[in-house]
Amino acid sequence: MEAYTENSPRMRLDHSKKEGSEETHLLRFELEPTGNDHRFHSMNALEILRETVRILRYNSWGFLAIAALLICPLSALLLSNLLVDQSLVKRLTIRMLLIAKSSGLPLRDFISHSCQRFAEMAISSTMCFPLYITLSLLSKAAVVYSVYCSYSLKKFDVSQFYLIMCKIWRRLLSTYVWMCMVVVGCLILFLILLLAVCNTCSIFGLSPPHIVYAAMVVGLIFSVIFANAIIICNIAIVISVLEDVSGPEALVQSGVLIKGQTQVGLLIFLGSTIGMAFVEGLFEHRVKTLSYGDGSSRIWEGPLLVIMYSFVVLIDSMMSAVFYFSCRSFKMETSLDSESHSILETINFSAESVGIQ
What we know:
By secondary structure, this protein is mainly alpha-helical. It is about 70% helix and about 5% strand. The chain has eleven helices and two strands; from the N terminus they run E-E-H-H-H-H-H-H-H-H-H-H-H. A two-stranded antiparallel ribbon has the order 1-2. The longest helix is centred in the middle third of the chain and has 46 residues, at about 160-205. Keywords: Membrane, Transmembrane, Transmembrane helix.
């Protein structure tokens, strides 16, 4: 795959009329020079969403094929919990409830439900880990490659993508393993800190409601830290695909890259999380729990919700890739270096960079 080498254009998606065709609007990429300094422009969360939709329309069949072949199967397994052993979930939930009770937390419905959800997430992540390092990782790489191809005015080439993946798979897998360790580390640190705060409040004789308030404050602070960690991990995956960086170096570079754009990343993470949680809630209520009728609607509601969930995951991966380009642009805008280069030219992602002739 050849990197784009024009005179540092800033690229955007636009509608244009095609002469001699019945189609009045054809989505295309337009090269728009802006003087001597040509580059991508940094974007806010809404602009990133719009850019993502434009890219999706430009190469809709390619992205939909990625969703159908790679994302939908994993989404179906995750939503249905087919690989989750409910007996393990029950035992882990009971142990977590005992720990919560010993730390002074009252065993209210919210606490019990949170423990059960955390147990399900832990067991599901463990059982589905082989799928995460294959289907999920491959889908993320395919999405990043497709976005890059769209910006480079090239079509998605399956054979070229296969050759590239053979070359970059090890560094991509290394980054994903480090990403998992960061996420697990954050969760373990949160649990330790939560238990420490609850035990401290219990020692000082605070009432259970006050202990719950203290736990909520800790959870709120952790949610912000955890969101930043997820954003850094997502951008690190994009960096591992587009640049010759992997593992902890990709995570560090990702953390440096999103400085000044953290608020945009948090809004993207919040939107994606709300969308996924909404679809998961619908699947739980409409498909897994028979709360109405005879359950015949599961036949079409189940696949529909799986498709909806897969689409949200696809948009989230695409927005991460677009966010990467936006952050690169922001760094160039704030750089003191007088020389201006195209972002596409600075990305070490070409046939030559991975040894493909």
